[in-house]
Request: fold
Amino acid sequence: MTRFRIRELREARGLSQHGLARRLGVTKMAVSRWESGAAMPTADKLPTIAALLECEVNDLYDDETLRAASEAARAAVAAKGVADARALAAGK
Reply:
């Protein structure tokens, strides 16, 4: 499950859910759902959320989520390498 630090970062900036929602052009309910983990913001919103919260996009994610994403990416790259090597070997 992807976890975000939006609530923590928003509160540190003194923004309400309503204020953040208004600046993003979404409902307060959307922000609430992101903060509770019931929904995720769309990828196109992440840079704007980060800018409003004065952080980098990767700061929006908790450490566990970043670690899991990094491990998944590493595994995907390794699997692609194996598949590419097999394809090359089969082509010879």
Remarks:
- DSSP finds five helices and no strands in the chain.
- The CA atoms of residues 50 and 57 lie 5 Å apart.
- Residues 63-92 form one domain.
